[in-house]
Amino acid sequence: MNSRRPKDGRGAFGQCQDAAVKLRPTGLRQVVNAVTLATPLGLALARAGHATVVRGPDGLLLALDYRAPVPAPRAPAVTVGDVVLLRMSSAELAARPQLLAHEGRHAVQWACWLGPVGFLPAYLLASAWSWFRCRDFALRNTFEVRAGLVDGGYVTSGDRTTVSRRSRPLPRRRSADRRRSRRA
Fold this sequence. Notes:
The protein has about 180 residues and is α+β, with helices and mostly antiparallel strands. The chain has one domain. Helices cover about 40% and strands about 10% of the residues. It contains seven helices and four strands. A four-stranded mixed beta sheet has the order 1-2-4-3, sandwiched between helices. Helix 4 crosses helix 5 (about 115-135).
């Protein structure tokens, strides 16, 4: 038996769905994101958005003061491969240290889902599902949940609001209501 394989038998990418940055070698993530062209795509977006690219923690590339309206015009940060497109300065980022942990988990997700070919359609589908379930693109999006909603700034740690299995009430059945009113 291979000694490098986890004891639970899940293999090299067995824990990808958890997207824990510290459980995965940074070099492997960087190679996969480069080969799948996710990181070059992120660098092209950073250049188009007139961002200043600097090296960040865990092999991430931080594109500070990103100004382009796409992708996600209201989001303070978007990760594409190993590039974190930040609509803030380094001083503003220093006030939100958990944001980089959240975005680092997205970099792992990009690698696990093999870059633009797998991650983009899966993320968009998860966003649509989240919108359908609770009228919010992130709260029920499995990628955002696994990256950490609190770290990403979607909810606060003291927030008592929970996302239930069905956030929207079921529509009332009118035919059943009519039958009841006829009997009464």
